[in-house]
Prior knowledge:
Blueprint: H1 3-30, H2 36-59, H3 70-85, H4 93-114, H5 118-149
Helix pairs in contact: 1-2, 1-3, 1-4, 2-5, 4-5
Amino acid sequence: xxxxxxxxxxxxxxxxxxxxxxxxxxxxxxxxxxxxxxxxxxxxxxxxxxxxxxxxxxxxxxxxxxxxxxxxxxxxxxxxxxxxxxxxxxxxxxxxxxxxxxxxxxxxxxxxxxxxxxxxxxxxxxxxxxxxxxxxxxxxxxxxxxxxxx
Length: 150
């Protein structure tokens, strides 16, 4: 497999793990309140994406590092601090939306170089579309939260 494609797969794999770890921290800190269902959904989404991406890396003879990166710690810390001061309610949605849009951008970059590899491109497009659907859901929740907060 092309090195550029592998690099993108590794980046996406690490990003999925980092995001999952951040949502796991949020779920723990939410203590069953607020956005708990959303956090569970996002954990499942990113965990599934990481599994698929890891499988693609292993099939290409690469190692799938399941540790994530320094960003895991950053995401976990942000959620922990937010829960201490504001709780994990609708006020965290803008940050979550922004982070997921950055993830979609990484998929867009990867899709540009994977077009000659249909199996990989199809997997990435499906994962990107699932994240985009969750962004739309979060944006709707954000609008509802802002309408009730005014």
